[in-house]
Amino acid sequence: MKPLSGVRILDLTRVLAGPFCTAILADLGAEVIKVEPPAGDDYRHVGPFKEGESALFALNNRGKKSIVLDLKSPEARDIALQLAAVSDVVIENFRPGVADRLGIGPKALHAANPALIFASISGFGQSGPLAEMPAYDVVVQAMSGWMDSTGEEGGGPLRTGEAIGDIAAGLYAAVGILAALVGRGRAAPEAQTGVQIDIAMLDCLVSMLPTSHALHHYAGVKVQRTGNRHPLSTPFGAFKSADNAVIIAVLGARQFAQLAKLMGDETIASDPRFASDELRTRHEPELRALIERWTSQFPTEVLVAELLAQGIPAAPILSLAEVLETPHAAMRDLVSPVPHHSLGTSPVAGQPLRFNGVKPVAVQGAPALGGDTRAVLEGLGLTATQISGLFAAGIVKGADLA
């Protein structure tokens, strides 16, 4: 299933948020032409490395073509304008105003292609007092409420283990681009107009805090860090086992009664301190002590089996390596090998969507720096002499032009 087959995307992004978005679109069949500066995307130079190839670049740039343009050159800008004229989507993650200064902002590109979808990813958006503020993931996590709500109970704020700000912005950018493509496709050809999509990492993270919003707006209480337990539901979190910890997620009176029965003390379910979810959360320390008196007697594997048998959601805490070794991960193809120009094959996580049971995956791995420069320029109608002149002048660069 390649539902975006025939869609061309001009990718002016680097590092993570933008490339994460366009990798998803490449999985879905879009032709993604990645424009890189002469030194390449920053992620090409960030480890870990395998045989000289950046793992982060390989994971987030699968399925794309690479063309090297020095966009500070007028000639390179003209090539970018030509590419935008024959593309459906342009996506960039420069600081606000940089694309305009380079002559490749939405106004210039819409003049070349009135129906173009132009998506901009930034830390704080294209407008507002913070628009010009530089942002990496940790900056936006710190300012969004994510770090403040993450951490051990009574402890300090913690950064989420992954670059959730970049990932969230990439996902929302993909949603916005797909929505714009659908909207444009429903219009008559003569009525199709371009659109500019503004994706801010801060906005994305703030929108992804439903529990915090519930506490702040509706309960009128300050968001507190609760470690591995849920702030609203109890028992819902990690509990000590004989060998590690077990996740128990109880929601509602029926599941709580099942848990009490399994623990061998059904009076717990009728204890007035634990008569509702709200009361159980209020008396969480007392209830935790009772539960851990039981869970600490058994290894995690035994606890998970017994809890699941009673219809109570439960799980061990697995590392990535452990989950990828499970038969379920293998059957669901959570990681797929794709051909790579240097490594032979490259394992990629891909995207998790399935269409009629089929998971779309890019047909090739991340490209060599400038590996598609000649082919892309030829597709624009440039002659071999013109291409050679651009290369000699340092305006373009590519592995196939060395």
Task: Note down, in words, how this protein is organized.
It comes from Gemmobacter fulvus. Keywords: Plasmid, Transferase. GO terms for molecular function: CoA-transferase activity. A seven-stranded mixed sheet has the order 8-7-6-1-2-5-14, sandwiched between helices. Strands 9-10-11 form a three-stranded antiparallel sheet, covered by helices on one side. Helix 1 (17-27) crosses helix 8 (164-186) and helix 6 crosses helix 9 (201-207). It has two domains: 8-207 and 331-401, Rossmann fold (3-Layer(aba) Sandwich), CATH 3.40.50.10540; 236-240 and 245-316, 2-Layer Sandwich (formyl-coa transferase, domain 3). It is elongated and about 85 Å long. The chain is α/β, with parallel strands linked by helices. It contains 19 helices and 14 strands. A hairpin with a 2-residue loop joins strand 3 and strand 4 (53-54).
Topology record:
Layout: E1 8-12, H1 17-27, E2 31-36, E3 49-50, E4 53-54, H2 55-60, E5 64-69, H3 74-85, E6 89-92, H4 98-101, H5 106-112, E7 117-122, H6 137-144, H7 146-149, H8 164-186, E8 195-200, H9 201-207, H10 210-219, E9 236-240, E10 245-249, H11 253-263, H12 267-270, H13 277-282, H14 284-295, H15 300-309, E11 314-315, H16 320-324, H17 327-331, E12 336-340, E13 344-348, H18 373-379, H19 384-392, E14 396-397
Parallel strand pairs: 1-2, 1-6, 2-5, 6-7, 7-8
Antiparallel strand pairs: 3-4, 5-14, 9-10, 10-11, 12-13
